[in-house]
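Folds vary. Our protein:
___
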Amino acid sequence: MKFYLKSADAWAAMAQACEQATTCIDFEQYIVRDDEVGQRFLALLARKARDGVQVRIVLDAFGSRTLLTSKVLEETRKSGAKVIFYHMQKPRRFVRIGGLFPRTHAKLLHVDDTATYLGSMCMAEYMRNWRDTMVALEGPAAIAARRDFDGLWRDLDDGQLDGDPGIIGGNRGGYYLAQNPKGGQRPLYEALLAAIMTARHSIRLATPYFFPPKRLRRALKDAQGRGVKISLLLSQQTDVAIADLITHALLGQWRHLDYDVRLYQPTVLHAKYAVIDDDWATLGSCNFDHLSLILNRECNLVMRDVGDVALLASQFDEDCRHALPAGTETPRAFKWHNRLVGRIRAMISQAL
């Protein structure tokens, strides 16, 4: 298992793996932008398709919307690569907010039967220097991830929106877990809650923004009541302004509950991972919010091997060294009406 902590490093490793592909490349991504990074990677996939490699691409229709009418996408399809956009919206004047979901928020790449990459990294030039996480998988977890993509592709190819409600596969050291918005089953959310409810001494969550659904809030509060230390590492600023507004509106609540809350300073913290005690951890595409835990397709790795968990715990400590305790950082200059909107939306998120 190999970790990548910078987007540019992961992109290079993924491109190298694709260059070596001989039979198949499967790629699923929330955001691929029509910029130099996205165009270069899609051009690589198109070239491999022309060389006879089977290439299947699933892109989210909202996150990757800049590609919908792009020349590079047209060339990719002409190469023989197959491209499906997840949850295309019909043109209409008004769209219900609920109708925008689900989205595929997954970030996955499978090359032949030899390489699988999973994590939280998208593909866009403006994300190049973000603090993010991608992991190269192997073994039973990688096999389960490839099986999950096969099921998703079959359903999408048949006009269905998603694959099986949940895919779990791996061994005692760790397993792949996919959560699809089908049938109301949320295995990733349930696994996270179960780990929190049995936590003995520490819960560490790293995520760009934090407005958790009710059951997660309650589980964290109960754990804190048992004497478990709750540590939150959030991003000082992200590329989603409304999420920043809600996150900052809720900071006082987490501090009032005596959670250790820190805000990452050097760049955007886009990584999403959790470390609970010394024997449970997860990382992947899933934010710890209502959209990821309830509505969207998400794919994570759950780690139970104490050595792997220790590595992620050490990374959490390293990330915290580049963060400031909430309340001591330089306040963001939100306009008064934006702060009001943030408080209102925070109240709504707390009701979910």
